[in-house]
Task: inverse folding
């Protein structure tokens, strides 16, 4: 189910994060937060990516702990890549680390100090009410890669990639975006198509243009080796 807001937080800030969620939900906002909204026995990484993709905005509970969290950094990176706005809600007077600053330097901030927390959350809810009105909800299916026009029905010109090619493709994509490449390749492969079509669907996951071209060239070499 689509939600208005994905909440990203570090484990030491769990109590604060859930207090913020309770107050936002009391105002009628639809929230996704882990682990509460992760389905039993679900693939955790897949659930996180789906939730970020279907949300309209990410709320980052920002603190010294989230500054040092690799999981928070991955979530913020995916939100920025999916073009979801990220709103940092600073519960401590700290600045983002270099790895987070790259993604957050242009973002609006809301400070949640000094205590108590509740008035700051009320101000946050007031802001979100107006901010969400200005964000069109993305109704595209975001779980199978970037939007693309489906080809006319009929047999593919080239065969679908074999398991060896898929593993090579995962390795090439992982060079640029990390371990999440495995999940993205498997999902993209479910849509069918040959190796070139699969590479074209996955290429937008690589943000840097030079790196994207390197990825596509590597995919072309994988296809040539199999001929």
Result:
């Amino acid at each position: 189910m689509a939600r208005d807001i994905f909440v990203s937080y570090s484990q030491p800030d769990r109590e604060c994060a859930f207090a913020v969620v309770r107050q936002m939900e009391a105002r009628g906002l639809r929230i996704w937060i882990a682990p509460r909204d992760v389905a039993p026995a679900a693939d955790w990484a897949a659930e996180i990516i789906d939730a970020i993709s279907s949300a309209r905005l990410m709320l980052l509970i920002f603190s010294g702990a989230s500054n040092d969290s690799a999981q928070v950094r991955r979530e913020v990176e995916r939100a920025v890549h999916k073009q979801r706005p990220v709103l940092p809600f600073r519960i401590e007077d700290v600045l983002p680390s270099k790895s987070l600053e790259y993604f957050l330097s242009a973002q609006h901030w809301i400070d949640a100090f000094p205590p108590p927390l509740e008035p700051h959350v009320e101000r946050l809810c007031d802001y979100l009410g107006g901010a969400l009105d200005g964000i069109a909800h993305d109704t595209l299916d975001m779980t199978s890669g970037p939007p693309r026009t489906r080809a006319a029905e009929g047999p593919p010109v080239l065969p679908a990639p074999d398991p060896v090619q898929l593993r090579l493709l995962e390795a090439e994509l992982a060079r640029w975006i990390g371990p999440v490449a495995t999940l993205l390749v498997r999902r993209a492969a479910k849509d069918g198509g040959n190796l070139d079509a699969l590479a074209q669907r996955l290429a937008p996951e690589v943000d840097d243009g030079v790196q994207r071209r390197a990825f596509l060239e590597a995919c072309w070499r994988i296809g040539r080796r199999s001929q």
In short: The radius of gyration is 20 Å. Residues 209-225 form the longest helix (17 residues).
